[in-house]
């Protein structure tokens, strides 16, 4: 039987430095996302949705150990039996430092995966205020393995390839990707989908912050590289249906994974 999954991407504006406003807004959008007849099985949020890029004050506003996020998301996912990839948040850790971290909650409310951004984006001064993650992040979506990357990470094809080689059929990408690089956003996401023959589910923010504007264009790309859903530049909940069996079919049509010649690759 074909196993199809409905996904919803919360393409939202974010108030820099105002976690209370952002939590309120996310709660509204979550309710809206599940209040349709076509209820999604998976909801994805954008990057750093709790604080935005208020990096100068990030130490004082980041979520302590992610507790506030965990409480809200775990309760919501359990009540509505929906999986949530809770975008990424700025998370203050007791051991020291703020991380840009994704937490995943299964439909039973239990934590089902975690990933902290590995490649910090120096154009936004991330490396001055945030700590880099050190591990890959995976979760399960509808019984299939999914890998996670955050925004700038999509410029590093090695990371997506590693996740695919480890079994991921779906790549989930929360982002705050700004103007004027829409061409890079669409091209890099499509390339990750085509070269790894996997679904890419990418949720970007909209709005402006400190002179930077964000164009949205959240999208879902199938393993053939076709964009099956794409948002515009306004706040919206983008929905799509994915069929992980298509990954197996596409990998069978062009056998990239069996034709790889890793002995010829010099990857630093
Ligand atoms: O790579 C880019 O152009 C954007 C990356 C970015 O904005 C981020 O990682 O937050």
UniProtKB/TrEMBL annotation:
Domain of life the protein comes from: Bacteria
CDD domains reported for this sequence: nitrilase_5
Protein family (similarity comment): Belongs to the carbon-nitrogen hydrolase superfamily. NIT1/NIT2 family.
InterPro entries according to UniProt: C-N_Hydrolase (IPR003010), C-N_Hydrolase_sf (IPR036526), UPF0012_CS (IPR001110)
Pfam family, one: CN_hydrolase
UniProt keyword terms in alphabetical order: Hydrolase
SUPFAM superfamilies with a match to the protein in the record: Carbon-nitrogen hydrolase
Molecular function GO labels: hydrolase activity
Domain CN hydrolase: 5-244
Database matches in Gene3D superfamilies: Carbon-nitrogen hydrolase
Claim: Secreted is one of the keywords in the record: no
Protein name stated in the entry: Carbon-nitrogen family hydrolase
Keyword set includes Hydrolase: yes
Organism phylogeny: Bacteria, Bacillati, Bacillota, Bacilli, Bacillales
């Amino acid at each position: 039987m074909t196993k199809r999954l409905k996904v919803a991407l919360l393409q939202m504006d974010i108030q820099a430095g105002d976690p209370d406003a952002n939590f309120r807004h996310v709660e509204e959008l979550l309710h809206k996302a599940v209040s349709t007849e076509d209820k999604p099985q998976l909801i994805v949020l954008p990057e750093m949705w709790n604080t935005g890029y208020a990096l100068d004050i990030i130490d004082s506003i980041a979520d302590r150990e992610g507790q506030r996020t965990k409480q809200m998301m775990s309760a919501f996912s359990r009540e509505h039996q929906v999986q949530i990839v809770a975008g990424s948040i700025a998370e203050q850790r007791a051991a020291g430092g703020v991380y840009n971290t994704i937490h995943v909650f299964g439909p039973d409310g239990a934590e089902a995966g975690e990933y902290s951004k590995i490649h910090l984006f120096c154009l936004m001064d991330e490396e001055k205020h945030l700590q880099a993650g050190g591990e890959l992040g995976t979760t399960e979506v509808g019984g299939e393995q999914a890998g996670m990357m955050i925004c700038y990470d999509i410029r590093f094809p090695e990371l997506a390839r590693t996740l695919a080689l480890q079994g991921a059929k779906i790549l989930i990408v929360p982002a705050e990707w700004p103007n004027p690089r829409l061409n890079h956003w669409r091209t890099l996401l499509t390339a990750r989908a085509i070269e790894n023959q996997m679904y890419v589910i990418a949720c970007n923010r909209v709005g402006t912050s400190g002179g930077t504007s964000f164009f949205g264009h959240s999208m879902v790309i199938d393993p053939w590289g076709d964009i099956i859903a794409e948002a515009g530049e306004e706040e919206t909940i983008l929905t799509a249906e994915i069929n992980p069996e298509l990954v197996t079919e596409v990998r069978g049509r062009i056998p990239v994974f069996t034709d790889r010649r890793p002995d010829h690759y010099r990857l630093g």
